[in-house]
Design brief:
3-stranded mixed sheet; globular; DNA-binding; Arc Repressor Mutant, subunit A; homodimer; alpha+beta; two-stranded antiparallel ribbon
DNA sequence: TCAATTGCGTAATGCTATAACGTGTGCGAT
DNA sequence: ATCGCACACGTTATAGCATTACGCAATTGA
């Protein structure tokens, strides 16, 4: 799924996330866009839904937040499962991919005949700076 | 962290989860315990907090639900990271552990000097039965 | 005895997400 | 051309998840 031209709302939401240098909740995004005419959560959620679909934004399940994909131009969906390390102190997020992990998880699902649709890997803790 | 004697509320919540054969949300648990005098979400959340701490219950971040640990008597916290496969059709959850995955993620965090506190691995999809 | 800890109960609130309705616009098929 | 469809959008209301703040009671241990 590649990203077509974004609509106005999608572009606004994306821009806010891009500038944020950290994950944002839908309601935080909403607040940042009130000046641009946003009035309801649904406007944000609808835009996010598409951005997630296009693979340019990721959702962090463990903190109910959203973050731009670390791979600006490539299609993130082709990298296999995305993993995140989330600093609980500064909020910074590192995105990475590990094919060996993917492979192990795929082996397991295959063994169980489980049809995986979406895999979440999120490590919460402290980044180097904050742990020091 | 091993589980001491559970308090009344903790035992009630645990029992409900144990009988459930699938993950339950905190509010579902609350509803099931109204007859036993539960009246507020906090009663459930407080019990869950302890049960999570004792390692006898897990939280599924991606579906905001809770499930009993698949290892009745051992201390789950000693198995390394827990992974879950969650069927989006029937709601059934399989818990598993993969040391190789743990190892790969630990390698990554060590390389980044990231101090991991809690790792979430959740695979959503369809179980063998539901996929057929 | 006093202070600290822990569990509990209640009320209120806050945060996250979706349902249900209707509007307008672009576009292809007839 | 116009009808039907898909899609984005706007608004209101509601559902679902989680925590804050307050106070009380029992337990423990200095």
């Amino acid at each position: 799924m590649n990203a077509p031209q974004l609509t106005k709302n999608q572009a606004l939401v994306f821009e806010v996330l891009e500038k944020a240098d950290g994950p944002l909740s839908a309601y935080t995004i909403l607040d940042k866009l009130r000046d641009h005419g946003f009035r309801a959560p649904l406007q944000v959620y609808r835009a996010l839904e598409k951005l997630l679909e296009y693979g340019v934004v990721h959702r962090l399940e463990s903190i109910n937040s959203f973050v731009v994909c670390a791979h600006p131009n490539e299609n993130c969906h082709s990298h296999g499962t995305v993993a995140f390390a989330i600093c609980e102190s500064c909020g910074h997020v590192m995105e990475f991919h590990d094919h060996e992990v993917d492979h192990r998880l795929m082996d397991w699902t295959r063994g169980k005949k489980f049809k995986a649709e979406k895999t979440t890997i999120e490590i919460r803790g402290l980044c180097e700076t904050c742990a020091a």
